User: Fold Lipid kinase, YegS/Rv2252/BmrU family from Methylomagnum ishizawai.
Amino acid sequence: MPIPAPESNPPNPAPARIRAILNPAAGTRQDVRDALEQAFAARPDLRWEILETQAGDDARRFAAEAAALGHDLVIACGGDGTVMEVAAGLKDSPAALAIIPCGTANVLAKELGLPDTVEAALALALDPAAAIRSVDMGCVDGRLFLLRAGIGYEALYNLETSREEKTRLGRWAYLLAARRALARLREARYVITANGETRAIRGITCMICNSAGVGIASLRMAGCANVGDGLLDVIVLRSFEMTQIARFLASLVHSLLPFLRHNPPPLEDYWQAQTITVECSRRQWMTLDGEPFKQAKHFTASVVPQAVRVRVPRAEPVP
Assistant:
């Protein structure tokens, strides 16, 4: 079985150069900016700046620039899309990533056990005793993702979810969009090659996961999935028949039981691999971390091990 990537607990030196990247469309922009400025003002030892994104690639570009300039810490203030872009800009960089979760689901923040309030998350970001955890990323046809790549129904309901709905309804927006997407649901044939084996499956969606989190603490589609294990997780949902729904719900319950988390989930179509190739019977929309990517009939996904260093809470010593 894969061994989860260990967390490092030795204290880190206090960061000297910090760039905070703020998505003004996520959360309450002014409250987050005020909290950042107040925290930075209390630390005269820091050199800091706050940049706000205006266009789609700004967060990645700002992060890559910070890494090239030798910044010690880059703080992503936004939802999972912003965090993914910042992580992409920091890939293979010594700069650490801190996360201030301000989005709808905040899947990675929950996966890593990060605080869910701005003040607590900011305190962790500036805490010299915080731990650093190396987190994998995935790559599909040259584009990076942090959580998962989805094709079929997974992509349809993400495309159906508007920013206005997410702001107004929070996580419920995804449920409403998922219901609307049922009207356009069509089965496809997926030919999946992983670990030297090829399987052909008919299903409604195929997901390639780095994180199998669903935005609710400790709840995952596959309990043994781990963002630091050097593997991607393949999940295919065949249909909305009761047997398939029962298996999926059983996998969610399975993920809540600590003594089962390192065992394969009770899903019929689930694999782990470093590289996965998927061929579809027809062209379908793909999303990466919930964002539109492209329409495709064929793609290859591969893991990028230990791509980014993330500040996480220091592990409590075992008595």
In short: The first helix runs from residue 29 to 41. The chain has two domains: 17-135+308-312, 143-306.
